[in-house]
Specification:
There is one protein chain. The two termini are about 20 Å apart. The chain is built from twelve helices and no strands. Helices cover about 70% and strands about 0% of the residues. It has one domain. The protein is an all-alpha fold. α4 crosses α5 and α7 runs antiparallel to α12. The protein is globular, with a radius of gyration of 18 Å.
């Protein structure tokens, strides 16, 4: 049985909700938090717990963007049997999200053992935190922000979806990867961030559902799962609202000093043997 207390689940829920949509890597922060709580970070039950409480963050996206999602889904369903609807942006955007989510579904499934195994190392987290920060800096340097959400194309969505796969490496950050890809494609920050949110829905729901079996097999406490999921929902909802306002007037490179600093601290602690990588 995986021993995760209610207090552990509250703390991990807060970490998940705060970091899931910020370009700082929720997986990195959860891994660090689990290490500090003396939880075995390479344990299947702990990995399953981490994936399942992400459902709370996704629920926050569904609630926050409920009107947008309802409109997009309605247009997609209507367009399946009404050709005149297929020219609308909402109908096309639904397909963008679907096709943009295919890469993470395929690659995530094929690399599932690697992702939940050897990649769950603080060495990997530290290097990825620092390494992807350079990509974020380059993305902002090359960003033209000439295009709004309405100008999004299928190519944009697929590119962002492919880059999202890199975030399977703990420390990269799913939002940091997709927003950076959107900036490279010429989208403005708000558009790139909103698309990042929509692409997160299939990715995180799929991961959470897939890990349910491990949660059952490893006897992860149901109470801890529920508490962690609810806490992550509340905190993530506030984080989403804040991030959308933030990116409207600030560069994502403002997160880089924190990412690099955290990565360097981890490298020092690991190199000196103060902490172990798993």
């Amino acid at each position: 049985m995986t021993d995760i207390s209610i207090l552990d689940s509250v703390l991990l829920g807060v970490v998940e909700g705060l970091t899931e949509f910020l370009p700082v890597s929720s997986t990195a922060h959860l891994t660090i938090a689990e290490k500090m709580l003396d939880l075995p970070i390479d344990d299947k039950g702990v990995t399953a717990f981490t994936a399942i409480i992400q459902m709370g963050a996704i629920a926050a996206v569904l609630v926050y963007f409920a009107k947008d999602i309802a409109r997009i889904v309605s247009a997609w369903v209507a367009g399946l049997h009404r050709p005149e609807v297929r020219g609308s942006f909402d109908y096309r955007f639904a397909w963008f999200v679907i096709w943009g989510s295919v890469p993470i579904g395929v690659i995530g499934f094929l690399l599932r053992d690697l992702v939940s195994g050897s990649l769950r190392s603080l060495w990997v987290v530290a290097v990825a935190l620092i390494g992807w920060s350079a990509v974020m800096v380059l993305a902002e340097a090359r960003a033209t922000q000439a295009r709004s959400e309405k100008s999004t194309t299928l190519t944009d969505a697929v590119v962002m979806g492919l880059v999202q796969c890199i975030a399977l490496v703990p420390g990269v950050s799913r939002s940091g990867a997709t927003i950076s890809a959107g900036l490279f494609r010429g989208l403005d920050r708000v558009a790139a961030t909103r698309i990042s949110f929509f692409l997160s829905i299939p990715a995180l729901v799929g991961a959470g559902l897939y890990e349910l079996k491990d949660a059952v097999q490893e006897s992860v406490p149901v109470g801890a799962l529920l508490v962690g999921t609810v806490v992550s929902f509340v905190v993530a909802y506030v984080s989403i609202a804040w991030l959308l306002r933030f990116v409207a007037g600030h560069k994502i490179t403002l997160f880089v000093p924190y990412r690099v600093g955290l990565g360097l601290v981890l490298l020092v602690l690991l190199s000196t043997g103060t902490i172990t990588p798993t």
